[in-house]
Amino acid sequence: METTIVTLTDEKQSEEAIREKIHAAGQVIRQGGLVAFPTETVYGLGADALSPQASRRIYEAKGRPSDNPLIIHISNMEDLKKITKNVPGPARKLAEKFWPGPLTMIFEKSDIVPLETTGGLRTVAVRMPNHSIALRLIASSGGFIAAPSANTSGKPSPTRAEHVAEDMTGRIPLILDGGSVGIGIESTIVDFTEGTPMILRPGYITAEMIQEVIGEIRIDPGLTARDAEAHPKAPGMKYRHYAPKADLVLVEGSREKVQRKINELAEEALGEGKSVGIIATEETRAGYGHGVVKSIGTRTDADSIARHLYGVLREFDQLDVEIIYSESFPASGVGQAIKNRMQKAAGHQVIEV
Ligand code: TXA
Ligand code: MG
């Protein structure tokens, strides 16, 4: 299959031309095809959420296990009730406050949502993304786009159209290029189907921000458990995921000790003939004397770390690095989501110094 990449960021394009391109993409989805598109979190791989066959194509293109449910993306509040059965008051409040935005909520599904889209579950995950291309594509495709992150299953999520092309060329007909995404890690997921709402995946919208709006919120205990045997409730969170090809090892502790330890480990690995990568920050990068050192962002701005995380992992993939040592970052605010993704990418290989 030939894959076309359509650029929507060229400033010389007329509004009319952009509208036409998005409309054509919407037609591809209406006809059961796949279109990768930008959102504010990561790129999504979209298909008609109400078509069992279209959903199946997503699993095929990603190589994703068919029991891992998809998020349905909507572009207006009216459409929420068409695909759900029961939206509790606190969920409405969160939607009012954070939609469009990086928040996904799980409800009982209505009958029009096929089990193929929900991985066989009676519940459905819904999100209204905060990105004009995404919102316009959803509207022009009929209103309901099922979209996982547009990476091959198990690889880091794509934050640029080039990342999508790396994974999906030859597998899907169309990629909409909207430039780099703003946030860089996937949405926060909150489950409303079992009593007190529960965070199943941390993201840019933090537990504190949710608490401020609705009061009580739980966090899936399976998320914070150290042993890999604990089972998170979101099926997708149980896989080793977001993973680079190289072994990733996180080093935690005070800045000086972490730096000393990473230098030691890197020297050792180089001595064994391995190619080594190091994930550092603007503030710390100069302190390393071995291997390929990449800055992931600045410590004074956690958002910058979230934004670059997956791109840096992909860059190391391209360099065929065999082992990556990474600094760890503060776990407050969006830092919680960063920590969660890094631990998963590391398959829980953490060294404390
Ligand atoms: O930011 C995002 O959420 C991106 C963009 C494209 O919107 N999408 C995304 O989708 O990250 P995906 O498929 O990569 O991750 C969806 C996660 C998986 O862990 C899946 O198991 C979980 O949501 N999930 C979906 N539906 C669920 C349900 N009904 N119950 C529990 N977990 C669910
Ligand atoms: Mg994903």
What does this structure look like?
- By secondary structure, the chain is an alpha/beta fold.
- The chain folds into two domains: 235 residues, DHBP synthase, CATH 3.90.870; 106 residues, 3-Layer(aba) Sandwich (Rossmann fold), CATH 3.40.50.
- Helices cover 33% and strands 18% of the residues.
- The protein is built from eleven helices and 16 strands.
- The strands form two sheets. Strands 1-8-2-3-7-4-6-5-9-10-11 form an eleven-stranded mixed beta sheet, with helices on both faces. Strands 14-13-15-12-16 form a five-stranded parallel beta sheet, with helices on both faces.
- α7 links the parallel β10 and β11.
- α10 packs parallel to α11.
- The longest helix has 17 residues.
- It is globular, with a radius of gyration of 20 Å.
- The chain starts with a strand and ends with a strand.
- The structure holds threonylcarbamoyladenylate (TXA) and magnesium ion (MG).
- The site of threonylcarbamoyladenylate has 28 residues, from β5 and β6.
